[in-house]
Amino acid sequence: KTIQLDNGSVLLLSRLSTLYTFDAYLLTSKNTLYHMMIKRVTPNGVPEAVENMRKLSNAIYFRHPDTEPPHGAFALEAGYSMLPNDQFFEEIYMGAQIKGHSGSYVSLLTKSIIEKEPSLLERFERKDYDPAVGELSNNGRLQTLRKNKRTVGGIDGEEVAVSAVIEGKTFYAFQFEYDGTLESNTRPYIAIELGTHENGSNFKSNEEALVFWDELLQSFKPLPE
């Protein structure tokens, strides 16, 4: 079934057994097309899902990739969305390889939250490790390089930096975390991580790795509220 949304956007409904799958094609004023898939929608949930897609279609605008989105907007690859913060919660995850350090990666996760979990330092102290740290702990002896509170881009968070030598290779897991403000899209939960792939890191020393980490965090600059 095809449902025409506003502004030339289209919603395709496919039914498999008792559930529906939505394929939304959302069009901006400059003809940038976004595709979104929603799996496993129940028949009772179809009307609300269609209405939410209509709201999203009407809230997506074109933006040149080199320009900042307006205040309060959520940036997309070549656009932005303007959804009411009290009705829609947002989450984004991205990762990147590091030029010159093929064994390492960086990642950023931001998401709106409705409840707070134990902080990074609290979890670390009770050895409730996140995956990157937990994998090193399971395969080698952790060396704690840093464990403290830290301010990044005006945001007060917490930092953990560990290393481990496994089969002669050095691995790192550096984390910064801000616990976020409840039900806020402009002050979301933030997690920044530097990790190591299975072939190990080529940083020459712990100090060099930490200097790179510090430069990475210093480059993180949230837009003013």
Overview of the molecule:
The chain contains four helices and 13 strands. It has 225 residues and is of the alpha+beta class. The protein folds into two domains: 80 residues, no CATH class; 128 residues, Protein Transport Mog1p, Chain A. The model has no long low-confidence stretch (mean pLDDT 89).
Looking across the biggest beta sheet, what order are the strands in? Answer: 8-9-13-12-11-10
Count of β-strands: 13
**Cα end-to-end separation:** 42 Å
- CATH class (first level) name of the largest domain: Alpha Beta
Radius of gyration: 21 Å
Order of helices and strands: EEEEHEEEEEHHEEEEH
Bin the strand percentage: 35-45%
Structural class: alpha+beta
Layout of helices and strands:
Blueprint: E1 2-4, E2 10-16, E3 19-27, E4 33-41, H1 46-58, E5 60-62, E6 74-76, E7 79-81, E8 91-98, E9 101-111, H2 120-125, H3 131-139, E10 143-152, E11 155-166, E12 169-178, E13 189-196, H4 206-218
Antiparallel strand pairs: 1-2, 2-3, 3-4, 5-7, 6-7, 8-9, 9-13, 10-11, 11-12, 12-13
Question: Could you list some keywords that capture this structure?
Answer:
elongated, 225 residues, alpha+beta, six-stranded antiparallel beta sheet, Protein Transport Mog1p, Chain A, 4 helices, single chain, 13 strands, four-stranded antiparallel beta sheet, 2 domains
